[in-house]
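As a warm-up, study this chain.
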Amino acid sequence: MAQNSPHESTGPARLSFGEKFRLQTWLLGIIAFAIVLFLLVQAKFVLISLAIAIILFSLTADAINSIARLRMGNVRVTNWVASVLAVLIIASTLLMLSGIVVAQVNAVLSTALTYTEQAQQAVAAMFAWMGEDVEAAVLASMQTIEFSGYLRTAAGQAGNLLSATVLVILFVGFLFAERVWFSTKLVNLLGDEAQAERVGRIIGSIIRRVNHYILVKTAVSAVTGTLVYVVMTSFGLEFAAAMGILTFVLNYLPNVGSIVATLAVSLVAYIQVEDPSVAVLIFVMTGMIQFMLGNVIDPMLMGKALRLSSFGIIISLAFWGAVWGVPGMFLAVPIMVSVMIVCSHIPQLRPVAILLSREGLPEAEMPPASRPDRGGAEIGRQSAA
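Now compare it with the structure written out below.
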């Protein structure tokens, strides 16, 4: 009888050390991702407020540095005075915008119930071409929806907006208070001034790209919302201001926001007017406004500052929408820009940046001599001056 050699294995093949290490790395990566995802969901209120505060801080930091360098004779605007003025302006602007949004939401909610029956019949009439049975079935389905519950939920979300605004203001204030020490903390954290300069350039690139995106989107969205307001006012429709604000907000969502805004405006018009042709005309007019500004003017102003994959944007919207809800969808593009830039400067993660970029050519790291600024390190250095 043949016997197995003591050096031969009768069981399944054992994994090598390298395979065990890779398997452990993957398992640890999955566990770490699950923990981070859990923390993102649990602390979303604070994290969303912090992300918005960082964006507002980056938008105003360069302006504050410019103001702090101004001289009026022998008098110079000190850095802390400029920072206090910036915080006051940001706080007043945010509170004013929050008040406007809450007022419009309350105005819509107070009159929405009066249009409930009319809206149900209007939606059911859209299916009349399919037969009376289908129209009756759609009307019956619409009547089973508890619109009052949705309205109460919307009112609660509007109330949370004021709480989030106060938290954002507090975060912005503390960021301005800490900005003087950014460069010192960065050097001490990394322990190498050259490495700190490199990280500062990456931060500066993120700030420039995100700021350019926010400014262009704000300008285009403001013009679009104003034109939608003019169109609805010219037809004598109600909720013109609310639809203008809704269009302004939804246009921050790339690809899908303009479509949702156009459909919402058309539906509101269809509910209010008796002639369907008027609603179709409003749909065509708002659609043309969205097309011209979103597909012609917006890309022209955006240039190459936002070279992101359209499919990647949709995936980012879906992911952050699932994690943080509607606010996460508004922050999806700035987060995606930041991830792409960081990955483009790390050789091991550069394939991720290639997948996120539109042409597969994410920006390369700029040498120190050609960079326009030094990002976070430069902000801190100018603040200390």
